Amino acid sequence: MKLILTHDVERLGTAGDVVTVKDGYGRNYLLPRGYATPWTKGAQKQIDQMAEARRKRSITDLEAAHALRDALNEAVVQVKKAAGENGRLFGAVTSKDIAEAATETVGKPVDKRWITLASPIKSLGSYTAKVRVHEDVTASLQVDVLRAPKK
């Protein structure tokens, strides 16, 4: 099955890539989750639009990417969430929460799509998130999840 990826899929490709996958993988995983769309002859225009959007989103200047990586590696991001007495969160810390806190801490924009978590964060503590700043530049970000004050 030939598909166009609409999102980055680990070990498969990035958004805008045309990939060939087994029918079951495409039909049961990629298409229902919106990670891909079927490839057609007229889909080249869509591929070009996604490539242009990706170019606008990514940091093209490698020096700026290295500067942001260094800032993220040194930063400690604090996310405050409501938690129970045993330290379990009511909900989870999302990549959006981390991106907002990192943007505020570092002073430079961090996109939620750049952040990868090893596992969902559902309790108080200290965690490490990977931030893919550029195709060739990855940062490690320390995330401290703290209890939010009661209202």
TrEMBL record:
Domain Ribosomal protein L9, residue spans: 13-40
Domain of life where this protein originates: Bacteria
Keywords attached to this entry: Ribonucleoprotein, Ribosomal protein, RNA-binding, rRNA-binding
Any single biological process term in GO: translation
Family matches, as Gene3D superfamilies: Ribosomal protein L9, C-terminal domain, Ribosomal protein L9, N-terminal domain
Recorded GO CC terms: ribonucleoprotein complex; ribosome
Claim: Ribonucleoprotein is one of the keywords in the record: yes
Function, in words: Binds to the 23S rRNA.
Protein name: Large ribosomal subunit protein bL9
